[in-house]
Amino acid sequence: MRKLLICLLAAFALVFSGTALHAQTRIISGTVIDEAGVPVIGAAVLETGTPNGTLTDLDGNFSFEVKSGARITVSSISYTDYTFTANSSGPWRIVLKEDSLMLQETVVTAFATQKRVNVTGAITAVSGDDVLLAPVANVSSALVGITPGISAVTVSGEPGQDAADIAIRGISSYSGNTAPLIVVDGIEQPASQAMSILNGISANDILGISVLKDASSTAVYGIRAANGVIIVTTRRGQQGKPKVSFSGNFGLTAATNVQRGLSSYEYALFRNEAIQNEVEGYGSTPLLNYLFTDDDLWKFQHNRDFTPAEVEAMNLTAEQKQQLLNSPALYYGTSDAYAELYSRIAPQWSANVSVSGGAERVRYFVSLNYFDQQSIMQNANYFGVNTGSRYQRYNVRANIDIDLAKYTTLSVNTSGQFGNTTGPGTGSLYSRYSGIMQIIYEGNPFTNRSMIIDDKLIVDFDYPQNSVQDGLHKRTDNEMTGGWLPALLSRSEGTTSNTRVDVTMRLRHDFSYLIKGLDLQTSVRYQENYSKVAVRSFAIPRYTVRRSLTNPNELEFFGGTVGTDSYYSGSWGGMRDFYADVVLNYQGNFGKHNIGGLVLGRATKYTMPYDSFNTPSGLIGTSARVTYDYDTRYMLELNFAYNGTENFAKGHRFGFFPAASAGYVITNEPFFPENDILTFLKLRASYGLVGNDQIGGKRYLYLPGTYSINMGPGSFTSETSSGSLQSNYYQFGTSTDAYNTIYYGSAEGALGNPDVTWEKSSKFSTGLELKMFRNRFYLTADYFSEKRRDILTTLGVIPVTFGVPSWDTAAVNVGRVNNHGFELVLGWDDRAGDFRYSIEGNVTYAKNTIEYMAEAPNPYPWMNQTGHSIGQYYGYKTDGFYDTLEELNNRPFFSQSANAVTLGDIKYVDLDGDGKIDSKDIAPIGYPNRPLMNFGGKISLAYKGFDLKMVLSGTAMGTYYIARITSPFFKRAGNAFLWQYEGRWTPEKAASGAEITYPRAVYDASQDHYDFGPKSDLWALSSDHLRIKNVEIGYSFPKNSPLMQKMRISGLRIYANANNLLTLFDKMSRYGIDPETKDNLGGSEGNISYVFPLTRTTNVGVNINF
Question: Residue of 65, 468, 618, 886 with fewest CB within 10 Å of its CB?
Answer without folding.
Answer: 886
